[in-house]
Amino acid sequence: MDFAPELLRMNDGKLLTGAEGWAKRRAEILEILDRECYGRMPGAPAKTEGVVESVDEKCCAGHAKLERITLSFDTPAGPFSFPINFFNPTKAGPHPVIVLLNFRPDAYDRYYPAEEIIDRGYALAVIYYQDVATDDGDFSKGLAACFPRTNPAEDWGKLSMWAYGASRAVDYLLTRPETDAKNIAVIGHSRLGKAAMICGAHDERIRFTVSNDSGCGGAAMNRTWHEGAETIAVMDRVFPFWFCRNRAKYKESAADMPFDQHFLAACCAPRFLVIGSAEQDLWADPLSEQYTAYAASPAWRLFGLRGFMGGSEPFHAGEKNLDGEVGYHKRDGVHFLSRQDWLVYMAFFEKHRG
User: Fold this and answer.
1) Which pTM value belongs to this model?
2) CB of 185 within 8 A of CB of 97?
3) Tell me: the pLDDT tens digits for 139-195?
4) Is the pLDDT of residue 129 over 90?
5) ω into 94 cis (within 30 of 0)
6) CATH code of domain 19-352
7) Where are the domains of the chain?
8) Which residues, 6 or more positions from 92, have their beta carbon under 8 angstroms from its beta carbon?
């Protein structure tokens, strides 16, 4: 099964055949994605600092400390800060760390089974996404207000801002002795699954990128759209602020795009990526999410790795393949980040931890 455009075709027309050329091709792909879809993310700050504001010494049945931490870093408009909740196991580390972009500020939330994650040996850093940037078209507050907007076609959208916030959490977590620097994961659901993919594509410190039900603009191929799924046109009408304005050029014809979502997924290579879908979540286009896992895999094979081992035949609910560097699973049910999803993702981490 062929997917367009060709992932390994360089901008000069040459076909990439070995790992030695991947860094250049990856840079080309990120440039395309930044220019045409997500907007141009600024470089990392010189330093991200963290101040522990409060500590719950006995959360998760006494198996972890819950720290409320304020992160801060310099921007062109001055310092910017936002809080995270950091669940730090009481057992001696270092621990693999999961960075979760989350929809609510609650320390305990339905989107993550904190105690179970801790008991599996992970630390968990949770970011309430609107503490970074509001989920609307207002660019006058939050992180959006900290960087000048000089090119309407290419200025970064909110998805990239949330991804940038996740990377700043990684900055800080790498200063903590409890962090296993070789095993950092970023995860998000729905729109935050899109942001997690952007973060993992750009930030090579992240070993595991997890996209849960991220759909159009995330893990779902645009050119293989299926009935009932979200479209670029709908997103441009309802959520134009998630992307740069150039993306709107393709709302009538995805075939004209100089990329598809396998480009974004492939930028995680040769690191690890796992994509999750739900059978009844037609809006996120589960089969097109599976296709992305399949279509991105040639990037891993440049390194003699396997990529996705599940093929292109549609998965049924309950099926998964976690054997290669690209994993995919499809559960029953609807649009949600469930305990079942978390168990699959942690199994993937444990299969491939460094």
Assistant:
1) 0.98
2) yes
3) 999 999 999 999 999 999 999 999 999 999 999 999 999 999 999 999 999 999 999
4) yes
5) yes
6) 3.40.50.1820
7) 19-352
8) none
